[in-house]
Write a structure and sequence with these properties.
- It contains 17 helices and 13 strands.
- It is an alpha/beta fold.
- Helix 5 runs parallel beside helix 7 and helix 6 packs across helix 11.
- About 5% of the residues have low confidence.
């Protein structure tokens, strides 16, 4: 009987580091009779990937069961040289019950016994780490905690229950919080190999973001709508790959997660007898300061990326648009960097930076000038739903609406809260009849075009009002 260990994550539990270490030590493992198909050799250099189980997942997703059987019998167990094999990929979490039953059936008729390994971690820290991953890879731009549903996710429990239904006692769950400082030794203990001769992975893989970096990347994602999120974050992280990062703790969010996660955590602890037991968070009682003053140094890495990046032809216009918006954002932070960004945008696409933009001659040979200006779209008092799904839908409606703008969005949604009015007599009052709840800045060739866009804003459907103003350019 052969033994196959399938590592499925779960999310944000060091999978990338584990896969890099396995790739680095695939030869040494082979010497101990354990096969790790090194299908992503770049992983050992710190490149993040979907692991060596991506091909297996792809085969099951496409219902190509003959290919899945070939992978299981000849790729993961090459030439009968090993009786134990390791497959690792977080993608395998997505296999539905029927596909898992097919996996077990294929392995059963080929004399392969399966053990599924999953790591779980405290839900608050998992939520925050997942949020940061969204900033890095998916281009999200909302503040942490804004989408409440993501704070109370029971995704991990759903995955574990699905695997339990097929593999029963062959599902092994480990508390990542108890082993994260030496997850490699944890894996060695589960599978049973000697870690003594293994090479050390002397680099951080897929490191998280600092609080300052998260603020900067949120702004960048708003400017480019996610088009360059991964490229920018990879560049910024590569400049300081080994720095330590903190978790942002907001007491109200911690309490919300603790309340929502209690049942799921209790089920995991009772079902898998975790030691140490899983907890909802590691909050010490002191709030993390989320107020960050962004300076020239804060943007230095992104500026370097923007001045060096060679955009794909398909993203050329978006890149020039991003340069232009980034330059506007930096006008009052670093005039030198702002001018450098405008200069590169002008070089790539002449006329794209100035308020008056040259366009090609028309059919009659007459020169045209198009006046381009910045406009402020402001939002006032709308009915906000407290229900997670409705708030998600409202956020999606807004993103769909602003994405319909064919021109440049300099700064997307900027929510405002805790508005106070300072009167001429020095008194201060909270809010006001016309307190602004947020704003967006865009480029346009005419006021009429912006007004047409504003008339379709979803804020109007929730009883709010929308204002449009031209931003005056001071010489």
């Amino acid at each position: 009987m052969k033994n196959l260990y399938i590592h499925i994550g779960l999310g944000k539990t060091g999978s990338s580091a584990l896969q890099a270490w396995l790739s680095l030590n695939s030869i040494e493992l082979s010497g101990q009779g354990i096969a790790y198909a090194d299908l992503v050799p770049a992983a050992k250099a710190g490149t993040t990937s979907a692991g060596n189980g991506q091909e297996l997942f792809q085969a099951f997703r496409e219902n190509d069961f003959s290919e899945a059987e070939r992978l299981l019998t000849t790729v993961y167990f090459p030439g009968g040289k090993a009786d134990t094999a390791i497959v690792s990929s977080e993608l395998l979490q997505n296999l539905q019950e029927k596909k898992l039953q097919k996996l077990r059936e294929i392995c059963g008729r080929n004399g392969i016994s399966i053990t599924v390994l999953a790591y779980v971690r405290s839900l608050y820290e998992w939520s925050y780490s997942t949020y940061l991953q969204g900033l890095k890879a998916s281009g999200s731009a909302y503040p942490f905690g804004e989408i409440s549903a993501l704070l109370a996710s029971s995704t991990s429990v759903d995955i574990l229950k699905r695997y339990l239904s097929v593999f029963s006692d062959r599902l092994l769950v480990v508390n990542y919080d108890g082993v994260k400082h030496d997850i490699y030794r944890s894996l060695a203990g589960v599978i049973g190999f000697d870690i003594g001769k293994m090479k050390s992975l002397n680099l951080k893989v897929n490191r998280s973001l600092t609080i300052e970096e998260s603020h900067v990347l949120r702004q960048m994602n708003e400017l480019h709508h996610g088009a360059f999120a991964k490229s920018i974050s990879d560049f910024v992280i590569a400049l300081s790959p080994d720095i330590e990062t903190d978790v942002f703790y907001e007491p109200e969010l911690v309490a919300k997660v603790s309340k929502c996660a209690a049942r799921d955590i209790q089920w995991i602890n009772d079902r898998f007898h975790l030691s140490p037991p899983l907890v909802s968070d590691f909050y010490s009682g002191q709030k993390t300061h989320n107020t960050v003053v962004l300076t020239k140094a804060s943007y230095e890495g992104v500026v370097r990326w923007a001045l060096d990046h060679k955009p794909d032809l398909k993203l050329f216009r978006k890149f020039v648009s991003f340069l232009r918006g980034f330059a506007v954002l930096l006008e009052y932070v670093s005039s030198d960097d702002s001018l450098a960004l405008k200069g590169r945008a002008e070089k790539l696409d002449p006329g794209s930076v100035s308020l008056e933009e040259e366009v090609p001659d028309d059919e009659d040979g007459f020169d045209q000038k198009v006046s381009r200006a910045r406009y402020l779209i402001s939002y006032y008092r709308s009915e906000e739903s407290g229900r997670p799904k409705e708030r998600e839908q409202q956020s999606q409606d807004f993103n769909d609406w602003i994405s319909s703008w064919p021109g440049t969005v300099v700064s997307s949604l900027n929510p405002l809260r805790s508005t106070h009015i300072v009167n001429s007599d020095g008194s201060v009052e909270s809010g006001g009849m016309e307190a602004m709840s947020g704003f967006t800045i865009i480029w346009s060739e005419s006021l009429e075009a912006v007004l047409s866009l504003a008339q379709k804003c979803p804020v109007l459907d929730r009883g709010g009002t929308v204002g449009v103003s031209e931003i005056v350019h001071l010489q």
